Amino acid sequence: MTGSMLQACSLRSGSFTSGRPIARSSRHVMSRTGRALCATVRADSVLIANTKGGGHAFIGLHLAKQLLDNGHSVTILNDGDEAKCKTKAPYNQYDSLQQQGAKIHWGSPSDTSAIPSGDFDVVYDNNGKDMDACKPLIDAFKGKVSHYVFVASAGAYVPDGIHAGLKEGDKRKESAGHVAVEHYLESEQLPYTVFQPLYIYGPHTAKDCEQWFLDRILRDRIVPIPAPGNQLVALSHVEDVASMLAKVPGNKAAIGQHYNICSDRCISFDGIVKAAAAAAGQEASVVHYDVKKAELKKGEGFPFRTSHFFAQVEKAKAELGWQPKHDFLSDLKQLVEEYKASGRLDKQIDFSADDKCIAVAQ
Questions:
Q1: Exposure of 34 by Cβ count < 10 A (0-12 exposed, 13-18 middle, 19+ buried)?
Q2: Residues 6 or more apart in contact with residue 4 via CB below 8 angstroms
Q3: Which DSSP category does 361 fall into?
Q4: What is the pLDDT of residues 30-70, one digit of tens each?
Q5: For 29, how many CA atoms within 13 A lie in the half-sphere containing its CB?
Protein backbone atom coordinates (compact mmCIF):
# COMPACT_ATOMS: atom_id res chain seq x y z
CA MET A 1 0.00 0.00 0.00
CA THR A 2 2.73 2.41 0.97
CA GLY A 3 4.71 1.70 -2.18
CA SER A 4 1.76 2.52 -4.39
CA MET A 5 1.47 5.95 -2.79
CA LEU A 6 5.08 6.93 -3.53
CA GLN A 7 5.58 9.39 -6.35
CA ALA A 8 9.10 10.45 -7.43
CA CYS A 9 10.10 13.23 -9.79
CA SER A 10 13.35 14.90 -10.86
CA LEU A 11 13.91 18.53 -10.01
CA ARG A 12 16.49 21.16 -10.81
CA SER A 13 17.35 23.27 -7.82
CA GLY A 14 17.57 27.01 -8.01
CA SER A 15 20.96 26.93 -6.26
CA PHE A 16 24.02 26.67 -8.42
CA THR A 17 27.52 25.26 -7.80
CA SER A 18 30.39 25.73 -10.24
CA GLY A 19 28.11 27.38 -12.77
CA ARG A 20 25.47 24.66 -12.98
CA PRO A 21 22.55 23.49 -10.84
CA ILE A 22 22.81 20.68 -8.32
CA ALA A 23 20.68 17.66 -9.18
CA ARG A 24 18.20 16.57 -6.55
CA SER A 25 15.28 14.17 -6.47
CA SER A 26 12.09 14.88 -4.60
CA ARG A 27 9.73 12.29 -3.14
CA HIS A 28 6.15 12.91 -2.07
CA VAL A 29 5.09 10.55 0.72
CA MET A 30 1.73 10.32 2.50
CA SER A 31 1.98 10.70 6.27
CA ARG A 32 -0.13 8.67 8.70
CA THR A 33 -2.55 11.57 8.81
CA GLY A 34 -2.91 11.56 5.05
CA ARG A 35 -0.94 14.76 4.59
CA ALA A 36 1.54 14.86 1.70
CA LEU A 37 5.15 15.24 2.78
CA CYS A 38 8.06 16.14 0.51
CA ALA A 39 11.62 14.97 1.19
CA THR A 40 14.50 16.23 -0.92
CA VAL A 41 17.36 13.80 -1.41
CA ARG A 42 20.64 14.92 -2.95
CA ALA A 43 21.53 12.95 -6.09
CA ASP A 44 24.94 13.95 -7.40
CA SER A 45 26.84 12.69 -10.40
CA VAL A 46 30.08 11.19 -9.09
CA LEU A 47 33.30 10.15 -10.79
CA ILE A 48 35.69 7.79 -8.98
CA ALA A 49 39.22 7.50 -10.37
CA ASN A 50 40.35 4.13 -9.02
CA THR A 51 43.77 2.54 -8.77
CA LYS A 52 44.84 -0.69 -10.45
CA GLY A 53 46.28 -2.34 -7.35
CA GLY A 54 47.45 -2.06 -3.77
CA GLY A 55 45.73 -1.58 -0.44
CA HIS A 56 43.40 1.18 -1.68
CA ALA A 57 42.07 -0.69 -4.72
CA PHE A 58 38.91 -2.01 -3.07
CA ILE A 59 38.00 1.37 -1.61
CA GLY A 60 36.59 2.34 -5.03
CA LEU A 61 34.31 -0.73 -5.12
CA HIS A 62 32.85 -0.17 -1.66
CA LEU A 63 32.61 3.60 -2.08
CA ALA A 64 30.67 3.13 -5.31
CA LYS A 65 28.26 0.76 -3.54
CA GLN A 66 27.61 3.25 -0.76
CA LEU A 67 27.12 6.17 -3.14
CA LEU A 68 24.72 4.16 -5.29
CA ASP A 69 22.78 3.13 -2.19
CA ASN A 70 22.60 6.82 -1.25
CA GLY A 71 20.97 7.67 -4.57
CA HIS A 72 23.94 9.13 -6.45
CA SER A 73 24.94 8.20 -9.99
CA VAL A 74 28.43 6.71 -10.19
CA THR A 75 31.03 6.42 -12.93
CA ILE A 76 34.36 4.66 -12.30
CA LEU A 77 37.48 5.39 -14.33
CA ASN A 78 39.82 2.55 -13.43
CA ASP A 79 43.51 2.63 -14.18
CA GLY A 80 45.07 -0.50 -15.70
CA ASP A 81 44.35 -3.08 -18.35
CA GLU A 82 40.75 -4.28 -18.19
CA ALA A 83 41.49 -7.81 -19.38
CA LYS A 84 44.16 -8.33 -16.72
CA CYS A 85 42.38 -6.61 -13.84
CA LYS A 86 38.89 -8.05 -14.22
CA THR A 87 40.02 -11.57 -13.35
CA LYS A 88 41.00 -10.58 -9.81
CA ALA A 89 39.63 -8.74 -6.79
CA PRO A 90 38.20 -6.20 -6.44
CA TYR A 91 37.56 -5.65 -10.14
CA ASN A 92 35.84 -9.00 -10.60
CA GLN A 93 32.98 -7.49 -8.57
CA TYR A 94 32.30 -4.63 -10.99
CA ASP A 95 29.44 -6.49 -12.66
CA SER A 96 27.43 -6.06 -9.47
CA LEU A 97 28.03 -2.30 -9.61
CA GLN A 98 26.87 -2.16 -13.22
CA GLN A 99 23.70 -4.00 -12.23
CA GLN A 100 23.08 -1.14 -9.78
CA GLY A 101 23.55 1.39 -12.57
CA ALA A 102 27.23 2.29 -12.29
CA LYS A 103 29.25 2.98 -15.43
CA ILE A 104 32.74 1.49 -15.68
CA HIS A 105 35.51 2.91 -17.87
CA TRP A 106 39.11 1.71 -18.17
CA GLY A 107 42.05 3.99 -18.82
CA SER A 108 44.67 6.09 -17.08
CA PRO A 109 43.21 8.97 -15.04
CA SER A 110 46.37 10.91 -15.93
CA ASP A 111 45.35 10.74 -19.60
CA THR A 112 42.70 13.41 -20.11
CA SER A 113 41.43 11.67 -23.25
CA ALA A 114 40.39 8.72 -21.04
CA ILE A 115 38.20 10.84 -18.77
CA PRO A 116 34.52 9.94 -19.34
CA SER A 117 32.42 12.64 -20.97
CA GLY A 118 29.65 14.39 -19.12
CA ASP A 119 29.29 16.66 -16.11
CA PHE A 120 30.24 15.53 -12.61
CA ASP A 121 29.41 17.15 -9.29
CA VAL A 122 31.97 15.25 -7.22
CA VAL A 123 35.29 13.65 -8.17
CA TYR A 124 37.15 11.16 -5.99
CA ASP A 125 40.81 10.52 -6.81
CA ASN A 126 41.57 7.10 -5.32
CA ASN A 127 44.35 6.49 -7.80
CA GLY A 128 47.23 8.96 -7.83
CA LYS A 129 50.08 9.23 -5.36
CA ASP A 130 52.05 12.08 -6.93
CA MET A 131 51.73 15.09 -9.19
CA ASP A 132 52.40 13.18 -12.40
CA ALA A 133 49.40 10.95 -11.74
CA CYS A 134 47.10 13.54 -10.15
CA LYS A 135 47.67 16.92 -11.83
CA PRO A 136 45.96 16.13 -15.18
CA LEU A 137 42.76 15.04 -13.41
CA ILE A 138 42.81 18.04 -11.08
CA ASP A 139 43.34 20.46 -13.98
CA ALA A 140 40.58 18.82 -15.98
CA PHE A 141 37.99 19.47 -13.27
CA LYS A 142 39.16 22.79 -11.87
CA GLY A 143 36.16 25.12 -11.71
CA LYS A 144 33.81 22.37 -12.87
CA VAL A 145 32.95 20.40 -9.72
CA SER A 146 31.40 21.21 -6.36
CA HIS A 147 33.78 18.86 -4.54
CA TYR A 148 37.12 17.23 -5.30
CA VAL A 149 38.24 14.44 -2.98
CA PHE A 150 41.79 13.16 -2.75
CA VAL A 151 42.43 9.84 -1.00
CA ALA A 152 45.95 10.29 0.33
CA SER A 153 47.67 8.29 3.08
CA ALA A 154 48.35 8.56 6.79
CA GLY A 155 51.78 7.20 5.91
CA ALA A 156 52.71 10.72 4.80
CA TYR A 157 52.74 11.97 8.40
CA VAL A 158 56.14 12.62 9.99
CA PRO A 159 56.52 10.48 13.14
CA ASP A 160 57.75 12.73 15.94
CA GLY A 161 58.80 9.96 18.30
CA ILE A 162 56.58 11.40 21.03
CA HIS A 163 52.93 11.17 19.99
CA ALA A 164 51.70 7.74 18.92
CA GLY A 165 48.22 8.73 17.73
CA LEU A 166 48.34 10.76 14.51
CA LYS A 167 46.16 13.86 14.37
CA GLU A 168 45.05 16.10 11.52
CA GLY A 169 47.43 19.05 11.41
CA ASP A 170 50.48 16.99 12.43
CA LYS A 171 53.51 17.56 10.24
CA ARG A 172 53.47 15.88 6.82
CA LYS A 173 56.47 14.67 4.82
CA GLU A 174 57.26 17.36 2.27
CA SER A 175 59.07 14.75 0.19
CA ALA A 176 55.93 12.60 -0.13
CA GLY A 177 54.11 12.68 -3.44
CA HIS A 178 50.74 12.81 -1.67
CA VAL A 179 51.73 16.02 0.10
CA ALA A 180 52.69 17.76 -3.14
CA VAL A 181 49.23 16.95 -4.48
CA GLU A 182 47.62 18.30 -1.31
CA HIS A 183 49.53 21.58 -1.72
CA TYR A 184 48.50 21.82 -5.37
CA LEU A 185 44.81 21.35 -4.57
CA GLU A 186 45.05 24.20 -2.08
CA SER A 187 47.04 26.51 -4.35
CA GLU A 188 44.63 25.98 -7.24
CA GLN A 189 41.72 26.74 -4.90
CA LEU A 190 39.73 23.62 -5.65
CA PRO A 191 36.86 22.74 -3.30
CA TYR A 192 38.92 19.84 -1.99
CA THR A 193 38.86 17.39 0.91
CA VAL A 194 41.77 15.08 1.76
CA PHE A 195 41.30 11.72 3.46
CA GLN A 196 44.15 9.76 5.05
CA PRO A 197 43.43 6.04 5.50
CA LEU A 198 45.53 3.60 7.54
CA TYR A 199 45.46 -0.21 7.33
CA ILE A 200 42.27 -1.59 5.78
CA TYR A 201 40.68 -5.04 5.78
CA GLY A 202 37.49 -6.50 4.36
CA PRO A 203 35.94 -8.22 1.33
CA HIS A 204 37.71 -8.22 -2.04
CA THR A 205 41.00 -6.76 -0.84
CA ALA A 206 44.04 -6.81 -3.09
CA LYS A 207 46.51 -6.61 -0.19
CA ASP A 208 47.14 -8.76 2.86
CA CYS A 209 46.06 -7.71 6.32
CA GLU A 210 44.76 -10.49 8.59
CA GLN A 211 45.62 -12.99 5.87
CA TRP A 212 49.33 -12.79 6.73
CA PHE A 213 48.61 -13.87 10.30
CA LEU A 214 46.17 -16.62 9.29
CA ASP A 215 48.69 -18.00 6.77
CA ARG A 216 50.82 -18.97 9.76
CA ILE A 217 48.27 -19.68 12.48
CA LEU A 218 46.18 -22.08 10.37
CA ARG A 219 49.31 -23.96 9.29
CA ASP A 220 50.59 -24.28 12.87
CA ARG A 221 53.66 -22.23 12.05
CA ILE A 222 55.55 -19.93 14.39
CA VAL A 223 54.42 -16.32 13.91
CA PRO A 224 57.46 -13.97 13.82
CA ILE A 225 56.55 -10.53 15.19
CA PRO A 226 58.80 -7.43 15.25
CA ALA A 227 59.94 -6.83 18.82
CA PRO A 228 58.58 -5.93 21.30
CA GLY A 229 55.14 -6.95 19.93
CA ASN A 230 53.09 -4.36 21.83
CA GLN A 231 53.09 -1.86 18.95
CA LEU A 232 49.57 -0.53 18.44
CA VAL A 233 47.80 -0.32 15.08
CA ALA A 234 44.33 0.62 13.87
CA LEU A 235 42.74 -1.90 11.49
CA SER A 236 39.73 -0.50 9.65
CA HIS A 237 36.98 -2.25 7.73
CA VAL A 238 36.68 -1.03 4.16
CA GLU A 239 32.95 -0.37 4.61
CA ASP A 240 33.75 2.11 7.38
CA VAL A 241 36.33 3.76 5.14
CA ALA A 242 33.79 4.03 2.33
CA SER A 243 31.08 5.36 4.64
CA MET A 244 33.29 8.27 5.69
CA LEU A 245 34.18 9.10 2.09
CA ALA A 246 30.49 8.93 1.17
CA LYS A 247 29.76 11.74 3.66
CA VAL A 248 31.23 14.26 1.21
CA PRO A 249 28.48 14.96 -1.38
CA GLY A 250 26.62 18.08 -0.31
CA ASN A 251 28.80 18.66 2.75
CA LYS A 252 30.34 22.10 2.30
CA ALA A 253 31.81 21.97 5.80
CA ALA A 254 34.27 19.33 4.58
CA ILE A 255 35.80 21.62 1.94
CA GLY A 256 39.42 22.49 2.69
CA GLN A 257 39.65 19.87 5.42
CA HIS A 258 41.84 16.80 6.08
CA TYR A 259 40.42 13.72 7.82
CA ASN A 260 42.03 10.56 9.13
CA ILE A 261 40.15 7.35 8.33
CA CYS A 262 40.60 4.45 10.72
CA SER A 263 38.96 2.45 13.45
CA ASP A 264 38.59 4.17 16.80
CA ARG A 265 40.06 1.10 18.51
CA CYS A 266 43.69 -0.08 18.50
CA ILE A 267 45.20 -3.54 18.76
CA SER A 268 48.78 -4.69 19.31
CA PHE A 269 50.73 -6.97 16.98
CA ASP A 270 50.68 -9.71 19.63
CA GLY A 271 46.99 -9.01 20.16
CA ILE A 272 46.23 -9.67 16.50
CA VAL A 273 47.89 -13.08 16.74
CA LYS A 274 46.09 -13.96 19.97
CA ALA A 275 42.69 -12.82 18.73
CA ALA A 276 43.03 -14.47 15.30
CA ALA A 277 44.09 -17.76 16.90
CA ALA A 278 41.12 -17.65 19.27
CA ALA A 279 38.73 -16.95 16.38
CA ALA A 280 40.20 -19.93 14.50
CA GLY A 281 40.00 -22.18 17.58
CA GLN A 282 43.74 -22.77 17.56
CA GLU A 283 46.84 -22.05 19.61
CA ALA A 284 49.52 -19.75 18.24
CA SER A 285 53.24 -19.63 18.88
CA VAL A 286 54.90 -16.20 18.70
CA VAL A 287 58.56 -15.16 18.60
CA HIS A 288 59.87 -11.60 18.62
CA TYR A 289 62.78 -10.58 16.42
CA ASP A 290 65.05 -7.58 16.04
CA VAL A 291 64.13 -5.92 12.75
CA LYS A 292 67.67 -4.71 12.12
CA LYS A 293 69.20 -8.14 12.67
CA ALA A 294 66.73 -9.84 10.31
CA GLU A 295 68.02 -7.75 7.37
CA LEU A 296 64.88 -8.14 5.31
CA LYS A 297 64.44 -6.53 1.91
CA LYS A 298 61.84 -3.78 1.44
CA GLY A 299 58.38 -5.33 1.25
CA GLU A 300 59.60 -8.65 2.60
CA GLY A 301 58.14 -10.25 5.72
CA PHE A 302 55.76 -8.56 8.17
CA PRO A 303 52.88 -6.73 6.38
CA PHE A 304 52.80 -3.58 8.56
CA ARG A 305 55.20 -0.88 9.67
CA THR A 306 57.12 -2.13 12.66
CA SER A 307 56.14 0.87 14.84
CA HIS A 308 52.88 2.22 16.28
CA PHE A 309 50.46 3.29 13.54
CA PHE A 310 47.07 4.60 14.53
CA ALA A 311 45.27 7.93 14.37
CA GLN A 312 42.61 10.09 15.96
CA VAL A 313 39.24 10.25 14.19
CA GLU A 314 37.35 12.61 16.50
CA LYS A 315 37.38 15.33 13.84
CA ALA A 316 35.49 13.15 11.34
CA LYS A 317 33.01 12.12 14.01
CA ALA A 318 32.33 15.72 14.99
CA GLU A 319 32.32 17.38 11.56
CA LEU A 320 31.03 14.61 9.29
CA GLY A 321 28.76 12.77 11.68
CA TRP A 322 30.68 9.57 10.98
CA GLN A 323 30.74 6.51 13.21
CA PRO A 324 32.48 3.19 12.45
CA LYS A 325 30.17 0.18 12.46
CA HIS A 326 32.85 -2.49 12.44
CA ASP A 327 35.26 -3.75 15.05
CA PHE A 328 38.21 -5.98 14.06
CA LEU A 329 37.77 -8.37 16.99
CA SER A 330 34.07 -8.80 16.24
CA ASP A 331 34.80 -9.40 12.55
CA LEU A 332 37.54 -12.00 13.07
CA LYS A 333 35.40 -15.14 13.02
CA GLN A 334 33.94 -14.12 9.67
CA LEU A 335 37.40 -13.22 8.38
CA VAL A 336 38.67 -16.69 9.33
CA GLU A 337 35.75 -18.32 7.51
CA GLU A 338 36.34 -16.18 4.43
CA TYR A 339 40.02 -17.10 4.48
CA LYS A 340 39.21 -20.81 4.59
CA ALA A 341 36.58 -20.48 1.85
CA SER A 342 39.05 -18.66 -0.42
CA GLY A 343 41.15 -21.78 -0.90
CA ARG A 344 44.28 -20.02 0.29
CA LEU A 345 45.09 -22.85 2.69
CA ASP A 346 45.73 -25.05 -0.32
CA LYS A 347 48.23 -22.63 -1.84
CA GLN A 348 51.99 -22.67 -1.41
CA ILE A 349 53.21 -19.74 0.68
CA ASP A 350 56.81 -18.52 0.70
CA PHE A 351 57.95 -18.50 4.33
CA SER A 352 61.63 -17.84 3.63
CA ALA A 353 61.43 -14.38 5.25
CA ASP A 354 59.96 -16.00 8.36
CA ASP A 355 62.97 -18.29 8.61
CA LYS A 356 65.29 -15.27 8.63
CA CYS A 357 63.29 -13.64 11.42
CA ILE A 358 63.02 -16.79 13.52
CA ALA A 359 66.78 -17.32 13.22
CA VAL A 360 67.46 -13.98 14.97
CA ALA A 361 64.48 -14.13 17.35
CA GLN A 362 65.01 -13.07 20.95
A1: exposed
A2: none
A3: B
A4: 444 444 444 445 689 999 999 999 999 999 999 999 999 99
A5: 11
